[in-house]
Amino acid sequence: KDKFFSIIAHDLRSPFQGLLNISGMIADDVESFSKEELSELTKKMHDTTKNIVTLLKNLLEWSQIQQGTFILSPENFQLKKVAQEDIDSLNQMAFQKEININNKIPASLIVNADPKMVNSIFVNLLSNALKFTPRGGEITIDAIENTNKMIQISVKDTGIGMPLDIKNNLFRIEKNIKRRGTEGEESTGLGLLLCKEFVEKNGGTIRVESEENEGTNFIFTLPAHK
């Protein structure tokens, strides 16, 4: 609870303060800014607002899980299609950093899981990979079916990786692992906590393979179709 309230207090206050500062500058003396400067300032406001919306969405889903009001509704669906929809939703972010996202999931793989939760898992893992992959990098999503009727999915990037202390504490809310992306992007770590909750609620597991400057690979499992 303490960590949860800390996230709300600190990680919402900071971006809102940024919005107030930028909007205040424009409101006080808009005529002193050139078109290029106004364009840059409004872009910063847009990026900050987008981060706030993502954080609020994650906070809402996290609180619903803790209260037991997030209902699991598993169904059979094509994994590649859902992954592609999430890739498409992040195309602008990938385009801005010149990062290519490859969807190598076989079209034949059908999972039995809650599609909304799987959607959130992909969006959070892809967003995380985009933040910590330098300009011109690459992200690859792939999947195989294990012998135990589980689908193993990987989200692998060519990013900056992470040191052992961060890797060991990724899925622990009481640990502060917040750090900025390769171009100063904000990151709270809450999205990865949600991924763990959602994967486990669907009967799967999640782990990470990563070394500094060697990229990161998030590997999780979901039940195959029934």
Structure in words:
With 226 residues, the protein is an alpha+beta fold. It is 49% helix and 18% strand. The protein has helices spanning 2-28, 35-67, 79-89, 91-96, 115-131, 164-168, 190-201; strands spanning 75-78, 100-103, 110-113, 138-145, 150-157, 206-210, 216-223. The protein has a five-stranded mixed beta sheet. The protein has a two-stranded antiparallel sheet with strand order 1-3. A hairpin with a 5-residue loop joins strand 6 and strand 7 (216-223). Helix 2 (35-67) packs parallel to helix 7 (190-201).
Number of strands: 7
Mean of residue pLDDT values: 85
Rg, alpha carbons: 19 Å
Class of secondary structure makeup: alpha+beta
Strand order of the largest sheet: 2-4-5-7-6
Largest β sheet strand count, sense and barrel closure: 5 strands, mixed
SSE string: HHEHHEEHEEHHEE
Poorly predicted regions:
none
Number of helices: 7
Distance linking N and C termini: 37 Å
